[in-house]
Amino acid sequence: MSNTVLHIDASMRREGSTTRTLSAAVLERQNATRVIRRDLADGLPLIDETWIGANFTPDEDRTPEQRAALALSEELIGEIEAADTLVIGVPMYNFGVPAAFKAWIDLVTRARRTFKYTETGPVGLLEGKKVFLLVASGGTEVDGAMDYTTPYLRHILGFIGLTDVQVIKADRQMSRGDDALEEAKAAIDGIAA
Fold first, then answer.
1. Residue 156 pLDDT > 90, yes or no?
2. 35-73 burial string, b = 16+ CB within 10 Å, else e?
3. How far apart are CA 166 and CA 172, in angstroms?
4. Helix (H) or strand (E) holding 88
5. What is the pLDDT of residues 55-105, one digit of tens each?
6. What CA–CA distance (Å, rounded) separates 175 from 193?
7. Nearest to residue 23, comparing CAs of 14, 33, 160?
8. Which residues contact 68 (CB under 8 A, 6 or more apart)?
9. How many helices (H) and strands (E) does the chain have?
10. Nearest residue to 6 (alpha-carbon basis) of 102, 107, 99, 88
11. Which bin fits 187, alpha (ψ -120 to 50), beta or left (φ > 0)?
12. Residues near 174 by Cβ (< 8 Å), separated by ≥ 6?
């Protein structure tokens, strides 16, 4: 049985990153037959007026330039569509997500492509996938009053249809030290291979 995993690292730290360490540990437990790798430390462009215009133009009416403007977005969405499981490592920067991860969100959250509007509200189109979300912070409690990362990610992932989200946290590392990382590793050990 095939199991394709999309592995996304959003930490700008290539060395010494808690979320990179944790996401790699989760990936090892996935028995993946194929891994699609997206390292956001390599950067992503921000959406701009050209991109917005292309996105709001019906597909059949897009010019070659508009199709080119949306090419990376299509590639990123294709990575999600191809995956059975997503493993996403996201550090909390200043209570929110890193800028490159916000760029990823903007590029993959598209009406008529990853969600649609209906008479009863929006419906996500990327259903039936498991998401492991590895969140790390220096001083903020995950799901605490100052955490604008985890609730936002649950919401935006659910908005595009990714509702089966398991959060594994290594939070408040500046005050909790190694205990935060050990608790996260224990949670990972509990994941069925």
1. yes
2. ebebebeeebeeeeeebeebbeeeeeebeeebeebbeeb
3. 19
4. strand 85-91
5. 999 999 999 999 999 999 999 999 999 999 999 999 999 999 999 999 999
6. 31
7. 14
8. none
9. 8, 7
10. 88
11. alpha
12. 138, 139
Integer Cα distance of 152 and 101 in angstroms = 12
Q: Give the integer Cα–Cα distance in Å for 87 and 67.
A: 29
Structure tokens at 29: 């437990």
Q: Which residue has the tokens 């419906």?
A: 123
* Strand pairing class (85-91; 130-136): parallel
For helices 178-189 and 18-28, give the axis angle rounded to 10 degrees. 20
185 CB burial (10 A radius; 0-12, 13-18, 19+): middle
Going by C-alpha positions, the residue among 47, 96, 92 that lies closest to residue 70 is 47
Burial annotation 109-123 (CB, 10 A radius, 16+ → b, else e): bbeebbbeeeeeeee
CB 138 within 8 A of CB 93: no
Query: CA–CA separation, 9 vs 89, rounded Å?
Result: 5
- pLDDT tens digits, one per residue of 12-45: 999 999 999 999 999 999 999 999 999 999 999 9
What's the CA gap between 36 and 108, in Å, rounded?
Answer: 16
Length of the chain equals 193
